[in-house]
């Protein structure tokens, strides 16, 4: 940790794909995150699991090494915004957010309404992480065009911003009203590690939500990404641009690797490190999170 950098916050992924939220009460999960010293809970987004899907996650080590939670059709996936609302109701000061919500496979006005509602009910403790998506079969099943997803992500962000003013003009010139408006500006973080994604985050977002992968030269890649973002946001007006990094491990049970990655990333100019510790029991998760926050002196 360099002297001029404060330690980043630590956020925690709650795996809403899998059996955790079936076997543990949401209150116990939220308590574990708070007891571990993390400042926020993050939920992923999959609406359906398509049979015989062949799409390869862009950050997977190989086509044969996909995440079982996405490939197994019987995996329960709890809806992300609903999880945020449920967790926020009992999370006290903790933030809740999506990492990331696939906006191009949802209607932006409906997302704007739900996000504003969560933001109001949490007194401004909601962060909306957005991405373009990668699972073609999921788009097909939901009836959304896959090829145009990045264009629709960008136009969707603009729709969200307009809707959150309380008044929105639709394509036919009809004005509609969406109240309540958010408490303040809802932070929109845009995900993705590619150069185009970094430009999109700098142009449209309040911050970036990147991924550091344990199976690659993640520090070299992160340094390059942060340098790019610094250049793209150098003369940016308005609210500060935040940098959030989510750690994705090949083996989520490797505690030592997780601690090492957190320590290394914390020396960079990032605002938050999002981790997914082992969720064997909430008590064990709280212990691992406490080790992480103690190790870097997270605020």
UniProtKB/TrEMBL annotation:
Keywords: Flavoprotein, FMN, Monooxygenase, Oxidoreductase. One of its GO terms (molecular function) is alkanesulfonate monooxygenase activity. Residues 45-258 form the Luciferase-like domain. PANTHER family: ALKANESULFONATE MONOOXYGENASE, ALKANESULFONATE MONOOXYGENASE-RELATED. Coiled coil: none annotated. This is Luciferase-like, subgroup. InterPro entries: Luciferase-like_dom (IPR011251), Luciferase-like_sf (IPR036661), SsuD_RutA_monooxygenase (IPR050172). GO terms for biological process: alkanesulfonate catabolic process. SUPFAM superfamilies: Bacterial luciferase-like. It comes from Pseudonocardia dioxanivorans (strain ATCC 55486 / DSM 44775 / JCM 13855 / CB1190).
């Amino acid at each position: 940790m360099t002297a001029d950098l404060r330690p980043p916050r630590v956020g925690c992924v709650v795996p809403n794909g899998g059996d955790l939220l079936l076997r543990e009460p949401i209150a116990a999960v939220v308590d574990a995150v708070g007891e571990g010293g993390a400042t926020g809970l993050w939920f992923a987004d999959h609406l359906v699991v398509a049979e015989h899907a062949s799409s390869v996650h862009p950050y997977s080590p190989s086509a044969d090494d996909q995440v079982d939670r996405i490939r197994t059709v019987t995996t329960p996936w709890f809806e992300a915004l609903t999880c945020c609302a449920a967790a926020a109701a009992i999370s006290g000061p903790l933030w809740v957010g999506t990492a990331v919500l696939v906006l191009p496979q949802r209607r932006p006005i409906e997302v704007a309404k739900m996000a504003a509602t969560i933001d109001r009910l949490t007194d401004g403790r909601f962060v909306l992480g957005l991405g373009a998506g990668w699972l073609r079969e999921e788009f097909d099943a939901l009836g959304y065009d896959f090829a145009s997803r990045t264009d629709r992500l960008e136009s969707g962000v603009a729709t969200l911003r307009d809707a959150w003013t309380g008044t929105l003009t639709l394509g036919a010139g009809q004005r509609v009203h969406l109240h309540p408006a958010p408490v303040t500006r809802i932070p929109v973080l845009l995900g993705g590690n590619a150069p185009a994604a970094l430009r999109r985050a700098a142009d449209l977002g309040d911050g970036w939500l990147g991924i550091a992968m344990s199976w690659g030269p993640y520090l070299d890649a992160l340094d390059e990404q942060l340098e790019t973002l610094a250049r793209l946001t150098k003369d940016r007006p308005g609210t500060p641009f935040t940098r959030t990094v989510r750690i994705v491990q090949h083996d989520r049970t490797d505690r030592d690797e997780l601690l090492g990655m957190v320590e290394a990333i914390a020396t960079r100019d990032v605002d938050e490190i999002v981790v997914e510790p082992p969720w064997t029991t909430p008590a064990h998760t709280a212990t691992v999170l406490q080790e992480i926050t103690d190790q870097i002196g997270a605020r």
